What we know:
Helix content: 10-25%
CATH topology of the largest domain: Neuraminidase
Distance between the termini: 60 Å
Structural class: mainly beta
CATH architecture of the largest domain: 6 Propeller
Largest sheet: 6 strands, mixed
Amino acid sequence: MSAVRTAAAEFPADLDWVNVDAPPRLAELRGRVVLLWFWSYDAVNCWNLMPALRQLEDKYHDGLSVFGVHCPKYPAQCEPGALLRAVNRHGLRHPVASDPAFRTWQDYRIEAWPSVALIDAEGGLAAVFAGEGRQAEIDACIAQLLDEAAARDLRVFAPAPQVARPEPPQALAFPAGLLVDAQTLYVADSGHHCVLECDLDGRVRRRFGSGSAAFVDGEAGVACFHDPRGLARRGDALYVADRGNHAVRRIDLRRGRVDTVLGTGRAGRSRPQAADPRATALNTPLALAVAGDDLFVAVAGQHQLWRLDLAAGTVSVFAGGGEPALADGALAVARLAQPSGLAVLGRHLLVADAASSALRLLDLDHRQMRTVVGRGLYEFGDVSGARDGVRLQNPLAVAVDPHGVAWVADSYNHAIKRVDCRSGATQALRLAYPLHEPAALALAGERLWIANTNRHEIVRVELADGAVTRVPVGED
C-alpha cells in the first residue's frame, strides 16, 4: 500500500448518530486505524458482514475504531428510531450514523452495500472493499496499517469505547417467527435466542434454548440458537430457521431435544443436489414450510428455495439461481430476491420475496413460478388496489387461508395487506393499533396472529371485525 494517500473525508457535521451522544470526528482519531462500513439494514449481505466486523473489533480492540454509516434502500429506514432498533437487533457495538442522503457514501465513492473503507493512522484513505466475504483481505490491511503506524511511532494503543442505547428490557425481544394451532402458540423470540411454547393466552409452557447466541444441540435448556426466525411443524417435530447459525434445527416436542437437520453452523454457498443436509452449508435461512414429506427453506442469503426431503434425508436447491432478481417461469429460469416468508396453499407455495417487494406463487407439481403482486428490486411503495398498481415495501411474512386469500406482513409499510392470490387485488387491513415492522404471521381460523417485531410483542386480530388484542407472552 502506498504511504501517500488522499485524505479521508470528514463526517458531515450534522450527521445523525443514533447510538452516541457526541458526534465522532475522524480528525480526533489520529493514531488509530478507522473502519467505516456502509450498509442498509434490510440487506442480507450486510447482515452477513456483521460477524466479521465483531471479530475484527475484538482482534484489534487496542487500535481499531469502527463506525457504521447507514444508507437506506427504503424510505421507512430513514427514521432514526427505526435504525436504532436495527442496531440493537443486530447487537452492533460501535457508533452508527443515519445518512439517508448518501452524503458520506458519495464522499467515499461507494458503489455497493456493504462496503468497507479503511483509514490509516494519519487520516488517509487506504482502501475500499466492496461486498461481503472479504474478511481476510480487510484483516490483512488493518494489520499492515497498524504495523505501519507503530513503525513510525504514530500508533495510539487504547480500546475504542463501546456504545449502546439498548431496548428497554421486555419479555420478548424482536419476535420474528410464529406458529399457532388450536391450543398452542409457538414464538421465535429472536432477540433472546430461544423458541417459546405458549398457550393461546401467552403463558409460557416451555422454553427451548438457553438464551445464549450459540450453536449447540441438546436438551431444551442446554441447546442454543442464534436469532431464530421462521417455524414449521410436522407431527412432533418443530423446525426452526436458525438465522444466525445458518442452519435449520428440529425440536422434538415429545422429548424437548434440539438437533440440527440442515447446515454446518457457518455461512456457505453450496448448491446441493440430493446432498447430505448435515454436511451442507447454507446462507441465512429465514422461513420454513412443510408440504407432505418436504420441508421447504427460504435461503435468503442465496436468493433460493431449498427442498429438504424428510423421508430420504437429502437436500437440494429447488428454485432460484443464486442472484437477486424477479423472474417468473419454470424453476430453471425463475429468480427470487431474499425470500423471507413461506406459506402452503394446497400444492402451491407462497413466497414473501422481500428484496423485490413481491408476493410469489410457486406451483409445486408443475414447477412454475408466477408473481402475484410486485414489480422488481427497486419498485416499491405503499399502494393497494388492482394487481398492476400494487406496491409493497420489503414484505417479510405471509399466511394464507384455504380460499386463496393471503395476508402479507408489509413490513416497511408497518401494515398487513390482504391479497387475492388469483386476481392480485390487494387491500390494507385497517387496524386501530400501531404496527412497527411486523415480521411474522400465523393464521388459525378467523384469527390472524402478528409478530409486531419492533414493538416486542404478539397481537391477535379477529378478522371478522378487526378487533386487536395484545397477547402478553411471557408476562405472567
